[in-house]
Amino acid sequence: MKKFMSISMILLLVLGVMAGCSGGEKASGDEKGTIKIGGLFDLTGGTGDVGTPYAEGEKAYFEHLATKGLVNGYKLELIGDDYAYKIPEAQKLYQKLKSKDKVAGVLGWGTGDTEALRSLVANDKLPYISASYSENLKNLEESPYNFLVAATYSDQARSAIKWIKDNHKGGTPTLALIYNDTAFGKSPIEDAKAFAAENGVEVVDEQIVELSALDATSQLLNMEKKNPDYAIIQQTWGATATILKDAKKLDIDTKFIGLNWATGEGLLPIAGEAAEGFIGVVTHAFPYEDLEGMADIKEYLESKGKTIDDINQKFVQGWVAASIMVEGVKLADDPTTGEGIRKGLEKISNLEFGGLAAPITFTADNHAGTNQIRLAEVKNGKWEVFTDYIGY
């Protein structure tokens, strides 16, 4: 005698299959579910020149990760959007990621928005790794869920000033500071002035050049009156190129040194010959460096029909930031909660990236992963690194 399933039994089976396939929260087999990480990207705003390749690197890392299987039994997914470097838009996007998408951590971007979100991030217990390296984020009382994955802007400036002090010939070195009037631009300025004073480097001038500036002639003429030996630039590629081109036009012989967002391949085609001799702080590797850590990136690029010629240093920077968040998930006892991932991140000790970046260490008392940078100089239209990782 044949046995037939009742309608109710069929419905139960169908619902069971649907439940296993919906939302990614729970899955069949060995998969425990999906852990979502939020992303705030600047693709079209004031720092979109460097923000776009950085975001591409973050997204690429998660795509590559998906081909390697589960992480502690979970599928990981990056969910993000462009907020155009506007703090109110960043706040709206953050609320969406938290409330609607139920993310367990966030990969953020700018200094102004990262600092504006600190209290929310702490209250929501969401680990937050951004592309801002503001010294303020070292304060664990105010930023208990923020993690710094490269030397702070202040530490970068300190290392550059130490290099100036150690390598300058002939008398007291003099220094100018050129930056934009944003939280990002102003972030290292007071620390740089204090460190310079403590180390026998005289800061003789400051000039503000906006991120979107197409002319910096007046600022550079004012700076030239003080005739500084060196000038540290805290900008992204666009404004840096403007400064270098106008300095060349005015035949200014000051030695310019850019912090990390002023550094990278994207500067070269827009600055042209004016970039020759420019020194940059390097927090992450250039794709053309022969490094072990480039293997996974090359594998990913090959899967997309691309090569290292299709990416730049900021892509590598985003890739590394994403990998650090994922390492926190791997080390977490409970990777489904922000609190769990924070504890996982605090277990990271001397995490190496095959040369892609300085090793990172976090503890419960210190979320500043490193103070190490390298220095590179533009020679014959190409960045050449000329130091190992150094501090101050």
From TrEMBL:
Key words of the record: Signal
InterPro entries: Leu-bd, Peripla_BP_I
Residues annotated as domain Leucine-binding protein: 34-381
Keyword Manganese part of the UniProt annotation: no
Keyword Manganese recorded: no
Listed CDD domains: PBP1_ABC_ligand_binding-like
Endpoints of the signal sequence: 1-19
Protein family (similarity comment): Belongs to the leucine-binding protein family.
PANTHER family attached to this UniProt entry: BLR6548 PROTEIN
Name recorded for this polypeptide: ABC transporter substrate-binding protein
